[in-house]
Design goal:
The protein is of the alpha+beta class. A hairpin with a 4-residue loop joins β1 and β2. It contains one helix and five strands. The longest helix has 22 residues.
Length: 100
């Protein structure tokens, strides 16, 4: 069953963090590792604090953690969108330079 959560924090350099399950009242924070992040592009797998996500819950050695992490309703994660935004900013910079 897919759950919904919010990224509490994520350390991009170490590749892990925690998310808060918002489907359950007083839901426990869940560990998340970059290997559980699902992206459709060749991007650096990371999560952003405050980002809402969908995920499945798995368990190992009595500890629960998030897997199959995607954007809401299977949409893109912010890490997949930043690349596009950056390109748009680069295009604006190039247009400004050409106008001068």
């Amino acid at each position: 069953m897919t759950s919904t959560g919010c990224v509490k924090w994520f350390n991009s350099s170490r590749g892990y963090g925690f998310i808060t399950n918002i489907d359950e009242k007083n839901g426990d924070d869940l560990f998340v590792h970059h290997s559980g992040i699902v992206v459709n592009q060749d991007v650096y797998k990371t999560l952003t604090t405050g980002e809402y996500i969908n995920y499945d819950i798995s368990e190992k050695d009595g500890k629960k953690y998030a897997i199959n992490i995607t954007g809401i309703k299977g949409g893109k994660l912010l890490c997949e969108q930043e690349k596009r935004v950056k390109k748009e900013e680069d295009l604006k910079d190039n247009d400004t330079m050409e106008a001068n």
